[in-house]
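#lab-general

N.A. 3:47 PM
ok so I finally got the sequence cleaned up, no stray characters, all 553 residues accounted for. can someone with queue access submit it? mine expired

B.Y. 3:52 PM
send it over

N.A. 3:53 PM
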Amino acid sequence: MKNKAYSYHRVSTEIQASSGDGMQRQRDNALKFLKNYPDYILHDEINDAGVSAYKGHNLLADAGLGKFIAAVESGKIEHDSLLILENADRLSRQGIRKGQTIIQLLFDYKINIGLVKFNLILRHDDENDISGAMLVAAALYLGRLESEQKSKRIKEVFDIQRRSAAKGGKKLALAKRPWLTLSDDRMSFLVNSDKVAIVKRIFDMKISGLGIMKIVDAFNTEGVSTIGFAKSNWNTTLVTNTIKSRTVLGEYHPRTVQVIDGKEKRVLTGEPIKDYYPRIIPDDVFIKANATFKSTVVGRTGTYQHLFRGFMKCACCGYSLSYKNSGKSKYTGVKYPDRLYCNGEKSRSTDCKIGHIHYKPIEDIVLGVLKFLDFKQIFTPSDNTNQISLLNAQKIECEHAISNYTVAIGTVKGNALPLLLQKLGDCQSDLTEVNAKISDLMHSTVNIDKTILDLDLSIDSNRRQLNQYISKFVDYVSSDGWEMSIKFRHQPHALTTEYHRKKGLPESDLKELAGCYQNFFNTTKEEFNAMDNLEGVITEDCTDWEQHVEMED
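B.Y. 4:20 PM
back already:
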């Protein structure tokens, strides 16, 4: 009986997707590849048209590859099936480490990988395939390098186009608004009267006294077509942004992408360009509509109540959790419990139905766990600036050498190939070691001062200080109201526990939970299970991995 093969095709841009050439080329080459391996038969195709592997979008739950991996993990894909790729960079362009992590995951589930470019199958049970490993590493490295260079060139082109547009040149296609269409010569925008009517109605409804949620519900009930990039229903973000955006006044303020705290963010750059778009809303209407929003006091006054602001998220949908002071009963004067609400549910952006979550138990659990953890074992404080600089220089040398050897491998023939592969392998090992050292040193630069946990948290400035301190080494805190997790930066596992939604956990349980995590924070699940069988290594109450320590995918 033949094993099943799955052919994966991906192109990065909508233009490539619409032409269909790249996708068809990958399909045709996959079929030719299968002719060389008659033990496999094509069972299905996986397509990601216009999906970026540079940003990892093909791994999301609604992407083709993301769905395939989910099927693999759930056991729906049979062992010894074959995933066919044009090259390893179709799978990922996020670099060697992340690409190899995906490949290893597939190998762990006994999925083989076919590389069309090299007419080669990487088999999950081959533990020492050096030539295959080197080819994959080289493809992942070059794919990342190419994407970085393209990204840089595209940014430079956009900068030129923005400067030209500011001087009356051709309009930017990416600057187009939902109610406008770019003219064929790209010198002007054409107005879509139907969508402009919707925008004007939004402003009129807001000025008349309707709140954002009322407008959203009215539009969704009437079945009004959405504007912008919303794929389904209206939500609060779309309506709010429409009212607050000065593009309705004809202004265009260029933005550029910057990496801030490890995340890509679009930030304003330069001065706004007047009369870039056709004006569709008068100044007085824009001012009246925006004046209906409740004003906020800059800097916030009173107690800094949400201690995990900026890194607390819903465990159900991944959106942030916002804090609400519930106030007191007007009849008894008793203080209601403060609560957290999912912003995804609140804005109608997701189907999340988590409702409210009691805040105080989560704060008590996080602070209790931090109190009992030995930070020095997890985070070693030191100033490693000079060492990191030296290692970065070594990293650049390794990357140049890898690039040179990779080019040579593609052209050389005969007996020199094994030697070049060995050299490439040595350089790759050196690069992996250097990257690991850099990561360890950056990880160890956290300034640890547990006395900050003893601050008086009834004082606003102390809560702000503690928030900033915790955010340096905690990646996120998540909860669904019954179970919560604390994910520490640079650690492979999240500390996860069930808790009483109103009472939290007693101090004895917090101490035991912290001790359990402390013992196993740097182990794999297999290592944990092996240790579980050793008498006296762990306590009886810490034998449930899923309750206390959760592997991060």
